[in-house]
Design brief:
The complex is a heterodimer. Among the domains of chain A are: about 35 residues; about 110 residues, 2-Layer Sandwich (60s Ribosomal Protein L30, Chain: A). Chain A has six helices and four strands. A four-stranded mixed β-sheet of chain A has the order 1-4-2-3. The radius of gyration of chain A is 44 Å and the shape is elongated. By secondary structure, chain B is mostly beta strands. Chain B has two domains: about 160 residues, Rossmann fold (3-Layer(aba) Sandwich); about 260 residues, Neuraminidase (6 Propeller), CATH 2.120.10.30. Chain B is about 10% helix and about 40% strand. In chain B, helix 2 crosses helix 4. Chain B is elongated. The N and C termini of chain B lie close together (about 5 Å). The chains are: A alpha+beta, B mainly beta. At the A-B interface, helix 5 and strand 3 of A face strand 18 and strand 26 of B.
Chain lengths: ~220, ~450
Amino acid sequence: MKRSLFWVGLIALVLCVSVAFLTGCAKKAALKETAMAAPGSTPPAAKASPTPSKSSDDAAAREKALRDQAAREKAARDAAAKEAAERAKREAAARAAAILKELQIPDINFDYDKYNLKPLAQSTLKAAAPAYLKYQDYKLVVEGHCDERGTVEYNLALGEKRAVEAAKYLVDLGIAKERIKTISYGKEMPLDKGHDEAAWAKNRRDRFVIFPPVK
Amino acid sequence: MKRLKHLAALSLFLVCLFHSGPAYGKVYIDIDSPAFQKLPIAIADFKPLRSVVAKSDLPVWFADALSRDLLLTGYFNVIDRRAFLEDPGQAGITEEGTRFGDWSTIGAEYLVKGGYQMDDRELVLELRLFDVTKGTLVVGKKYIGKPDDRSRIVRQFANEIILALTGEAGVFDTRIAFVKKGSSAAELYTINFDGSDLRRITHYNSLTLSPRWSPDGRRLAFTSFKDGNPDIYLQDLESGKTEKLVSYSGLNLPGSWSRDGVKLLVTLSREGSPGIYDMTVGNKMLQRLTRESSINVSPVRSPDEKQIAFVSNRNGSPQIYIMDAEGGNVRRLTMEGNYNTSPAWSPKGKKIAYEGSVNGQFKIFAIDEEGGAPRQITFAGGDHESPSWSPDGRYLVYSVRGAGRSRIEIINAGGQNSRPLQEGGDACQSPFWSPRLR
């Protein structure tokens, strides 16, 4: 009897110890798993975290999904608007550039110590006038320039005459006087810094600077 | 300028100190005569007024400074000191201490002797000009000033020498305004007649042109594009304060002041064509003088202010014309050449200098105000432009351009003794001579 009690006791002890051992091992393994999951981020950590009640979890997720959806839609709308604005801007710039190109008047050139408009200069201005009649809110500055020969002051006067002649011609073609300004730089701003007839011929010129409407 | 005034007062006070004999019947040398020959002058090394043992380079410095100034005038040949016979140890700085025979032997007609005494705070200079042939004192002055003033005092005495010999003071108390162009801007500068003391007047980083001294020498009128349009400004040189004077649409250029500083001739293109107006500076009232559709520019008053010379192309090419002060009685002055511009009326009257084109190059000419044959003044290579007279009418300053280089040059009105005043930048142009500055 005593002997059988001993065995029962022994078995019980062994069972106890082994249970204690096994559970200890399981705990360790679980710990290890969370520890490993932490740096790896989402799913295992979510599993390991204590789980709240299932129904409230679903509501939050739905809400979040809705929020995300709204944000995504807004971003898309914004992007579209931005793109539209940019496209409009690009188009406006292109339009403005096209207008500027249409209004562009190439330099007209003069003979030495002369300010009368040569036939080529006249046809240049005639060709330019319609665009100025079309785009009424654009203004124009006519710059008169001279070659390097001769007096600073006389050349300033000569450059003014060259600018005024072209301005007058444009006014005669129907462009309002108020839209055209003249300025003379005399011989002070040569296009070509050379000292020969080729350079001088280029420098005896009217340059046309377009001023778009100020918004 | 204040210090100069101080000096002038001192020298006035001390005129009696070295009496140079009666002034009546004085015969001046005619510098402007075509037969004029440079005057041989000797300048002895200066002597300490008190015997000093310490060796100094001041005796030579003073003599050289005065030599340089006198050479600039173009009136003198300065005799090399190595030719001097007089024993400097024995000689004094007065008539009594001078062996005139030693100076006439080496060909000197005039002799300058000077004594100095200088410490940290004060400089005393005694200067005498002798007529070697007669053995007499021509002019003697004593100056008291600061050691830093020594160049200025020497210039002042050079002025006295010119005054004593020619009846009119030299122009050592004048400056020249001009435009120096860089790659992107043209700014105003001023410089002394002798090339010293260059000062920059504008810092606009813009095109600035056509400086015109006011008759009191205190202000400069000029045109600048600094606000976009070529407008006329007026700068007070002492304070640097600048006001915009005229800014009509188109061209605004200053021309010539009236002697009282009340009026300024200007070129404006407010009516379309550049034309000449006389403006009352105080209230900016304009009197229109030309009514042509041609170019009319660069007006300059005659010394008596009854006439105005200007440039017009009314007959096809730019030529010099003269009209009455009210704009009437216009007549053409230059008949030769197809490009005559930049008139400058001699302050002594009668003559008008200008630039004219000869074989494609510009040279300086002078023509009688009644017309007639012009006389060519400059002949050297390059384009010579924008002449302006010294206040004594004895020199012209102008710009030279050629072979990619540019400078301001001064020449005696007779056409001799040209010398560069300032060089550099992309271009030096539009020089304008100041009145005497006091």
